[in-house]
Amino acid sequence: xxxxxxxxxxxxxxxxxxxxxxxxxxxxxxxxxxxxxxxxxxxxxxxxxxxxxxxxxxxxxxxxxxxxxxxxxxxxxxxxxxxxxxxxxxxxxxxxxxxxxxxxxxxxxxxxxxxxxxxxxxxxxxxxxxxxxxxxxxxxxxxxxxxxxxxxxxxxxxxxxxxxxxxxxxxxxxxxxxxxxxxxxxxxxxxxxxxxxxx
Length: 199
Hints:
- The chain is mainly alpha-helical.
- The protein has a single domain, classed as Tetracycline Repressor, domain 2, CATH 1.10.357.
- It is built from ten helices and no strands.
- The protein is elongated.
């Protein structure tokens, strides 16, 4: 039951926003009483915390699986972008913005976890890309990995990028291309062009 609550809450939060969804709505969607939800989560804040970490763990598991496939670093980034988009359902309600505004402690803790995971992954991706000649050899790994993370967070800021002007899918596509054009060698650019044609 706990997993069902997490799945349904995730779906509602992503579509309608963390602030907008009530415990009553979650209970109704599941066809259970509110009391059933409170058996597992003592309040909405606890549920929001569990859902965000559940989403984070699901995406991390998917990223680990993609990394095990040993594809080239450019294809790897595009596969991960696809996985993230599938899990975040285009973020219609700008959940990151709502999380930051209404649940700042949860947002801050999650951001720290995301940073550490992404930092490790991006540095591995960069090293592999340099090794096989897809990325330039003169890039600063720490700088690129940090700026990449910062950009990923920033494109989800709905004041900077209003959802009416840009869908999350468009932003992710633009940002990934922007990132790769900055670090790719000539050989890497050819691989990037192949990926862009598949979009």
